[in-house]
Amino acid sequence: MADETVGVVGAGIVGLATAREIALRRPGTQVVVFEKEQEVSRHQTGHNSGVVHAGIYYTPGSLKADLCVRGVSLLREYCRDRQLPYDEIGKLVVAVREDELGRMENLYQRARNNHVPELRRISRAEIKELEPHVGGIAALHSPRTAITDYPAIARAFAQDVVDAGGEVRLGFPVTSITTVPGGVEVACGADRVRVDRLILCAGLQSDTVARLAQDGPEPRIIPFRGEYMLLRPDRAHLVRGLVYPVPDPRYPFLGVHFTPRVDGSVEVGPNAVLALAKEGYRRSRVSPRDLLALAAYPGAWRMAAQHWRTGIKEYRGSFSRAAFMKDAELYVPGVGVRDVVRGGAGVRAQALDRDGTLVDDFRVHRVGRITAVRNAPSPAATASMAIAEHITSAVFDDA
Ligand SMILES: Cc1cc2nc3c(=O)[nH]c(=O)nc-3n(C[C@H](O)[C@H](O)[C@H](O)COP(=O)(O)OP(=O)(O)OC[C@H]3O[C@@H](n4cnc5c(N)ncnc54)[C@H](O)[C@@H]3O)c2cc1C
């Protein structure tokens, strides 16, 4: 007999890391993961850039900053133990205009506060030594930034859960969550499972699933599609490591960048366009239900009023390859439409408060027997093992 049963909704990397952490930290606890798809990591975890972020961007003292830095060391060790891909190819954050130098300096100070290892400011000549095809007037170099294979890590976490006596129930879309005396009942149609505690890690659906659990309606999730181009194989030599712009601090996304993947391909992107469906991987996918929910939310209109200019620019890049590559060309002069083919896309779950603020930090809260992850955007894949520690401590009050 298990001492206690804990349910986790969502078999993305956050849900699986959490299920694994509980199964290992609390032997005797039976863990069950409920996943609506037929395989793990079908959504954000399976459509991301595969970067292990070093912690450069995040507000010092925030959960993002602390859990990212801790997450990197846990993930590096895990990948080493399991012989999963983990390649420290390094990253440049490149300034191409004089007016970006101040922002780059702020980023450097922020990264130092976050204890990002071995970060250096480098000159135009040093950029050329590291990346002969990259242009720029100065850069930050983070040699320890890595790439990995998040779906492979998620599968390994799922296996750890099963090996520890837990269960990953695929094809189980949770349709109702009811608090019952001494526990919580999770149902998929007529199939009902009673657990002692429940953790919600539903990514793009985290607001919908939280509502099933009678948690507050806010923040809502706004889906931002990120579309990629792929460098043609004979042009993949144009970058050796990761090449990023200096980000706009008003915006939670990092800007179109060059991302080598563990399979040897190189992606350019992702952009950030408002998707017309939460799981809208293609432009043509429209969900009237998601769209109505968005239109009825005052926060969405307030966000649109603040960010419409950026929104139009991103849409232009979505429809026109030439417009998309214009940004990329600032970093690799001469790279253009003929060097790329269209790649895949991912959809980011970005939480939005009622006042139109894009929620920056991770947001996790617990009410009684239910703990809900309400915002886990990038770098949540990097930070997943540390987020799992954080959630486990919150669930069992043993921080
Ligand atoms: C384009 C893009 C690029 C990114 N790049 C990076 C990067 O380079 N590095 C990084 O660290 N992070 C990156 N991220 C962010 C990272 O991928 C996410 O933060 C992370 O994957 C979130 O994991 P998750 O488990 O919360 O969500 P998900 O992976 O989306 O998983 C949620 C799961 O919940 C399931 N679910 C939903 N509703 C139900 C229900 N009712 N019943 C049962 N199951 C349900 C879904 O099917 C899904 O499997 C990127 C994200 C995107 C989209």
Describe the model:
Its cofactor is FAD. Residues 6-392 form the FAD dependent oxidoreductase domain. This protein is an alpha+beta fold. The chain has 3 domains: 4-46 and 151-219 and 361-395, FAD/NAD(P)-binding domain (3-Layer(bba) Sandwich); 91-143, no CATH class; 220-358, 2-Layer Sandwich (D-Amino Acid Oxidase, Chain A, domain 2). The protein is built from 10 helices and 21 strands. A 6-stranded mixed beta sheet has the order 9-2-1-13-21-20, with helices on both faces. Strands 14, 16, 17, 18 and 19 form a 5-stranded antiparallel beta sheet that branches. The longest helix is centred in the last third of the chain and has 22 residues, at 298-319. The protein is globular and about 65 Å long. It starts with a strand and ends with a helix. The mean pLDDT is 94. Bound molecules: flavin-adenine dinucleotide. Flavin-adenine dinucleotide is lined by residues 9-15, 34-37, 41-45, 47-51, 53, 173-174, 201-205, 209, 226, 270, 346-348, 376-382.
Walk me through the topology.
Elements (H helix, E strand, L loop, with lengths): L3 E6 L3 H13 L3 E6 L16 E2 L10 H20 L3 E2 L3 E5 L5 H13 L6 E4 H7 L7 E5 L3 E3 L1 H14 L3 E3 L6 E5 L2 E6 L2 E5 L1 E4 L5 H7 L7 E12 L10 E4 L11 E4 L5 E4 L3 E2 L13 H8 L2 H22 L1 H9 L10 E13 L10 E5 L2 E6 L8 H13 L3
Helix pairs in contact: 1-5, 1-10, 2-10, 8-9
The structure holds flavin-adenine dinucleotide (FAD).
The rough form would be described as: globular
Which spans of ≥5 residues are poorly predicted at pLDDT below 50?
none
- Number of strand elements: 21
Rg, Cα atoms, Å: 21 Å
Q: What is the CATH class designation of the largest domain? A: Alpha Beta
Instruction: Please estimate the helix content.
Output: 25-40%
InterPro entries: FAD-dep_OxRdtase, FAD/NAD-bd_sf
Protein name: Hydroxyglutarate oxidase
Pfam family, one: DAO
Domain FAD dependent oxidoreductase: 6-392
